[in-house]
Amino acid sequence: MYSRGDVVLSLFPNSDMTSYKKCPVLIVQSDHVERGGDQKLVALITSNLKRTGVTRVPIECDSDLGRSMGLMMDSVVMTDNLATIKEHAFIKKIGHCSDMTAIDAALSHSLGIVTIDHN
Fold this sequence. Notes:
Elements: E1 6-13, E2 20-27, E3 39-46, E4 56-59, H1 64-68, E5 75-86, E6 90-96, H2 101-111
Antiparallel strand pairs: 1-2, 1-6, 2-3, 3-5, 4-5
């Protein structure tokens, strides 16, 4: 039902792992991962623009990408704040990220993934 790049309003766990907040998240998990369950790996989206860095991707709500993602205000995708969330915690899909290039680069940095040129 949900796929990579979808922006979903969801319950996201706080760092204490006992409480949650309702916020938008971006599904970053590949559609080809066979998990055998109804859960997805997501990145938190925040409107706190002070949260910057190479692992955080700013999205302007008035840009084509921001509109397609359904964002109501300028936001930051935090690829260093990931969680695995069961789909029953998803409230509704609000948009889709049509260009994951910057997200993928930030994820690679967050996870320490280095690409090797074999040529």
